[in-house]
Q: What sequence folds into this?
């Protein structure tokens, strides 16, 4: 009779029935109680192992989410006071180039950025400060 290490209570039950066929002494109540307790301990151990593996995978995924994202400095144009939104989106798109999913830069976003830049610098009077322009 080949003997493998039992992985579940079903394997242990099959081992018990095989041992009873070989030697009827394993069919006594004391031996059956011992096998019953071993099956229960094996089931508890397997359920704890499964719970710990699940918890470990959750912690691993939480760790991946908590890792800092890649940062890249946006090159500012020396002739401008502020960095334009268009440049920021281009840098973000470059960082996401390897990542899957929709890109932040679309033709609609680019057109909107150009309109915002035109509106941003439009004033009739150079001495006037525009607070809100619509």
A:
């Amino acid at each position: 009779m080949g003997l493998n290490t039992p992985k579940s209570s079903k394997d242990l039950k099959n081992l018990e029935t095989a041992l009873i066929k070989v030697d009827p002494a394993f069919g006594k109540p004391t031996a059956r109680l011992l096998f019953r307790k071993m099956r229960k301990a094996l089931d508890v151990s397997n359920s704890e192992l499964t719970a710990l593996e699940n918890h470990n995978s959750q912690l691993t995924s939480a760790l991946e989410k908590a890792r800092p994202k890649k940062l890249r400095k946006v090159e500012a144009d020396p002739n401008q006071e502020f960095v334009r939104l268009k440049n920021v989106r281009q840098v973000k798109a470059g960082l996401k180039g390897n990542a899957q999913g929709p890109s932040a830069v679309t033709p609609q976003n680019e057109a909107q950025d150009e309109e915002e830049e035109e509106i941003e610098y439009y004033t009739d009077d150079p001495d006037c400060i525009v607070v809100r322009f619509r």
In short: DSSP finds four helices and no strands in the chain. The chain has two domains: 9-66, 70-134.
